[in-house]
């Protein structure tokens, strides 16, 4: 089993560094898939997809995209978790949506992993306060310049190498 498959089973046991590296990995490896999904969402105003043991439903309302999620065997969706503002410029919106999709995939993997050896606690849907594509994540909601500096100093090479290795 490769490390990506292991991440799909670890869920809440993934460290913050692992989740951030997983986000970066998904953003690069699923770039074309996310582009197709973003075009479909912009065309149809809704998109449904699955990852790990979760299902994600994206929708557009008032130029904002948000998502709700649920475990595959469940009938109950979470409340709206995150949202991203659309600009009306397709190339900007596509780039924002690709990042948004990678973030939501990580959120769902963390909360609804595939069955594995590690027991998962039953509870709410947990997410990081700031998404990994935001400089606020790197500065913990403070100054964007500080966030940029910390982002440039962040080194996820070791984990990314594990994810890329088959």
Write structural notes for this entry:
The protein has helices at residues 3-10, 16-29, 31-44, 90-111, 135-139, 144-153, 157-164; strands spanning 46-51, 54-61, 64-71, 83-85. With 166 residues, the protein is α+β, with helices and mostly antiparallel strands. It has one domain (3-164). A four-stranded antiparallel beta sheet has the order 1-2-3-4, with helices on one face. The chain starts with a helix and ends with a helix. The mean pLDDT is 88.
Biggest pleated sheet? 4 strands, antiparallel
Distance between the termini: 8 Å
Strand % is 15-25%
Taking all Cα atoms into account, the compactness measure Rg is 16 Å
Overall structural class, as computed from helix and strand content, comes to: alpha+beta
Total number of helices: 7
- Helicity level: 40-55%
Overall structural domain count: 1
Order of helices and strands: HHHEEEEHHHH
> Strand order within the widest sheet?
1-2-3-4
Which of globular, elongated, flat, extended, rod-shaped describes the shape?
globular
Q: Count the beta strands.
A: 4
Low-confidence stretches: none
Query: What's the overall average pLDDT, rounded?
Result: 88
List the helices and strands and how they pair.
Blueprint: H1 3-10, H2 16-29, H3 31-44, E1 46-51, E2 54-61, E3 64-71, E4 83-85, H4 90-111, H5 135-139, H6 144-153, H7 157-164
Antiparallel strand pairs: 1-2, 2-3, 3-4
């Amino acid at each position: 089993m490769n490390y990506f498959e292991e991440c799909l089973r670890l869920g809440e046991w993934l460290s913050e560094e692992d989740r951030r590296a997983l986000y970066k990995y998904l953003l690069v490896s699923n770039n074309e898939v996310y582009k197709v999904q973003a075009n479909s969402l912009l065309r149809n105003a809704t998109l449904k997809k699955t990852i790990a043991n979760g299902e994600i439903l994206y929708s557009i309302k008032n130029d904002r995209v948000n998502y709700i999620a649920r475990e595959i065997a469940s009938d109950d969706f979470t409340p709206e978790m995150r949202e991203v503002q659309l600009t009306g410029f397709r190339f900007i919106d596509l780039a924002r949506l690709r990042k948004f999709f990678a973030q939501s995939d990580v959120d769902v993997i963390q909360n609804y992993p595939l069955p594995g050896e590690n027991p998962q606690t039953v509870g709410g849907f947990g997410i990081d306060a700031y998404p990994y594509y935001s400089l606020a994540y790197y500065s913990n909601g403070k100054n964007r310049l500080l966030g940029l500096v910390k982002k440039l100093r962040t080194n996820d090479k070791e984990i990314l190498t594990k994810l890329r290795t088959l």
